[in-house]
Design goal:
Bound molecules: adenosine-5'-triphosphate, magnesium ion
Oligomer: single chain
Number of helices: 18
CATH topology of the largest domain: Rossmann fold
Strand order of the largest sheet: 6-7-8-3-9-10
Number of strands: 22
Distance between the termini: 59 Å
Largest sheet: 6 strands, mixed
Radius of gyration: 24 Å
Length: 507
């Protein structure tokens, strides 16, 4: 193997108490290549990149560029060597402008040491132009959307003259159009001879953008191969160590036919309006039914979930639960009425990062394990253990702090918490974002099991296919309104997309 023209990571090992995150992994990226890094939640992808970025120290191993050994002792050092990592949670300073963020820490100076703002501005303009970014360098980062902030991160990497750019799940929160733009930027960077590492759980994306793929499993290298010589099924098998079962099992019988007839309406929403955000939302969900809410990023789906959960006030409209009109003015009120939201933003709304996996899972359900104010610790542990097992949460133990879990495993803990809590109405907002293929099947299975137990479920997702596959009926949103409702048999991808782009169902 030639050593030139590439970054090479050799025999990388990293242990945490109770977990071997990386066990002698070899990985390489050639300049001018997009190299995908694939693996189920907790496989070691982010850890490998964190070592490359100098944020985490490896226990063993070596890193080379063009055959020359690197000494990456800090993030600053990695940057000097031309390595940039774009994390899912960006490293931007919100109250500074775009230009200030790009140049932060390396501002051009005038004589006497004053910052040269003109130079900063023209430099930023040219970088943003190169990326086709549709905003001014004078804009404050806080005012930008996720996709735009990502462009600022990329501009930062370009300014630092990065030769290796790694992106950890960059499209998780992007719309289709934004993803396309990111892909054209990636192609541009590749043509300029950069080496790109691309982490994603979405296999279609990997086939579209990457040249080669490296699969990790349990901290070990499974294989590196060209995407031309591998199939989707083969990749899944490499990730899981087995073929995927049940991925295409769908419920063949419509609800109400298999279950007791007729089922009762649990949730009814009439004319719900929140000015400028939601407009005249009408929907109903029956016992045992999964109502899908489809729509592209920004359609108002999360806003609807927040309003139903009492997080945001509404201006107009009526919410009826189990036949009683309710005013949901706070999440506490919503939970009392049996409405639970499993949020998309797990760090802010779903988890206490400094607490153990066990505590996070049982927190919302402590009443179940308590008698006379005492918690039955053994029952609590057993139940939490069962949840961890059925969702395949990768953790060395129930007492591990949630902050030390991989991103996808944190998401599974949020799900475990609310699945255990049980409720009459469960709202799942992007429940499988960041979750690997194997666990996705489990999550969908659990949601279905909750419905079968009689819960009314709202399944929100920007992945149209997920909604089509896993709901009994669906509404599609665009621009804060419902643009159409489809029965399962009517929901073709074309129709859903048409409505999601703002098409009218009556056309
Ligand atoms: N700071 C830490 N302390 C303890 N364990 C850690 C720490 N960081 C990572 N781990 C563990 O190392 C393993 C690999 O985690 P990593 O974040 O690299 O996974 P990943 O492949 O990025 O997963 P995901 O797809 O869920 O993001 C996991 O078991 C994780 O719990
Ligand atoms: Mg990760």
């Amino acid at each position: 193997m030639s050593l030139t023209n590439r970054l090479l990571m050799r025999g990388i090992r990293k242990e945490y108490p109770g977990v071997c995150a990386l066990d002698g992994v070899d990985f390489e990226v050639a300049f001018g290549e997009v190299h995908a890094l694939l693996g189920v939640n907790g496989a070691g992808k982010s850890t490998l990149m964190s070592i490359l970025s100098g944020a985490t120290r490896m226990d063993e191993g070596a890193i080379f560029i063009n055959g020359k050994k690197l000494d990456i002792t800090s993030p600053h050092k990695a940057m000097e060597l031309g390595i940039s990592i774009i994390y899912q949670e960006f490293n931007l300073v919100p109250h500074l402008t775009v230009a200030e963020n790009i140049f932060l820490g390396r501002e051009p100076r005038k004589r006497m040491g004053f910052i040269d703002y003109r130079e900063i501005h023209t430099g930023a303009v040219s970088l943003l132009e190169r990326l086709g970014a549709p905003f001014s360098p004078r804009e404050r980062v806080a005012n930008l959307g996720v996709a735009q902030q990502q462009l600022v991160e990329i501009a930062k990497a370009l300014f630092k003259e990065a030769r290796i750019i790694a992106m950890d799940e960059p499209t998780a929160t992007l719309s289709m159009k934004e993803t396309e733009r990111l892909f054209s930027i990636i192609r541009l960077l590749k043509a300029e001879g950069k080496g790109i590492v691309y982490i994603s759980h979405r296999l279609e994306e990997i086939f579209e953008i990457a040249d080669r793929v490296t699969v990790l499993r349990d901290g070990r290298l499974v294989e590196t191969c060209s995407l031309q010589e591998v199939t989707r099924g083969k990749l899944v098998e490499m990730m899981l160590g087995r073929a995927l079962e049940g991925a295409v099992t769908r419920r063949e019988v419509p609800p109400g036919v298999a279950g007791p007839l007729p089922s009762k309406e649990v949730l009814r929403v009439e004319g719900l309006t929140r000015r400028g955000v939601l407009e005249d939302i009408n929907l109903t969900v029956k016992e045992g039914e999964i109502l899908g809410i489809a729509g592209l990023v920004g359609a108002g789906k999360t806003e609807l979930a927040r309003a139903l959960y009492g997080l945001d006030p509404i201006d107009k409209g009526k919410v009826v639960i189990g036949g009683c009109p309710v005013r949901l003015q706070s999440p506490a009120e919503a939970i009392r009425r049996g409405v639970v939201l499993v949020p998309e933003d797990r760090k802010r709304l779903g988890l206490v990062l400094g607490m153990a996996v066990r505590e996070n899972i049982s927190l919302a359900s402590l009443f179940r394990f308590s008698r006379f104010g005492f918690v039955n610790g053994r029952r609590e542990r057993r139940t939490a253990g069962e949840m961890v097992e059925s969702l395949r949460v990768k953790t060395p133990g129930l007492e591990q702090q949630v902050r030390n879990l991989s991103g996808g495993n944190q998401q599974k803990v949020v799900l475990a918490k609310w699945l255990l809590r049980g409720a009459r109405v469960l709202i799942f907002d992007e429940p499988t974002r960041g979750i690997d293929v194997g666990a996705k099947v489990e999550v969908h299975g659990l949601i279905r099991a909750l419905a079968d137990k009689g819960a009314a479920i709202l399944l929100i997702s920007s992945e149209l296919q997920e909604v089509i596959d896993h709901s009994d009926r669906m509404v599609v949103m665009h621009g804060g309104r419902i643009t159409g409702e489809l029965r399962k048999e009517e929901a073709t991808p074309e129709r859903v997309l048409f409505l999601a782009m703002g098409g009218n169902s009556k056309q």
